[in-house]
Amino acid sequence: MTKITAAITAVAGYVPDYVLTNKELETFVTTTSEWIETRTGIKERRILKGVGLGTSDMCVPAVELLLKKRGISALDIDLIIVATISPDYFFPSTSNLVCDKVGAKNAWGFDLAGACSGFLFALETGTQFIESGKYKKVIVIGADKMSSIIDYTDRTTCIIFGDGAGAVLLEPNTEDLGVKDSILKVDGSGGRFLIIKGGGSVNPSSHATVDAKQHYIYQEGQTVFKYAVTNMADVSAEIMEKNNLKADDVAWLVPHQANKRIIDATAKRMGLSLDKVMLNIQKYGNTTAATVPLCLWDYEKQIKKGDNLILSTFGGGFTWGAIYLKWAYNS
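The structure corresponding to this sequence follows.
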């Protein structure tokens, strides 16, 4: 019996129109454009403006573009998984709302919270549904409205994050293309270093939690940086070794866009030249779960059928991982 693999057959993205530059951030907090760019690689980021707009409102245009590119209807979709830490609401799920807004009346779905590794966790989850043989078309979305959980008086976090959404379509493949392997990890002991302290069942929303700014991201930057550099680089090298891949075998590293120095360290650990590294942090910043699919969207025309890609992430919680896949089409 021919083995079924889960292959990405289309990719699309969406970023808001509003551009928040480093220069504008200089008017919010004590910083400089040069300082931000030197330490992070970020020049600007996109922000979703407008009353009543949430993460689902970025997912919808990404999905609509995805369907148009693939030439299929929303009615053809079996499942939509949304990786996000900034859902529209606690419930209903953002996936539920996306299904309704795009007209995916035959689909079911759910949200997955893995912070910056969320897209990889969701991609591996979607892969299992395809490989089971039960589902034929699964959309995996990484999307976050980070501006909704950022304190723009905190210069340690407000310079880093932006808003955006990226989506991929998974379909069965019998050519040995698609997702080949994954290594996914968590370490909850790191949660105290990168966390939103308020709003959950431990610290339910109250005047006190709002006054203490506990509904914004809290980050101990130096600690997170140290863990990210080590774990993202190590897991990327590990998946190469596990699959007998040399640097020459890898066409692209698709890294989480958290910090240019972390990305460079990961590429170095893998033995890759920087021309094999997808990079768009300079224009989008860190869009959390959206960074990897947005990279695939930006670089789609440069990826060739059969190319070996390593997707690599590190996120709050802590979460991290790598996925090895073979690209399934020429755009």
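The first helix runs from residue 22 to 25.
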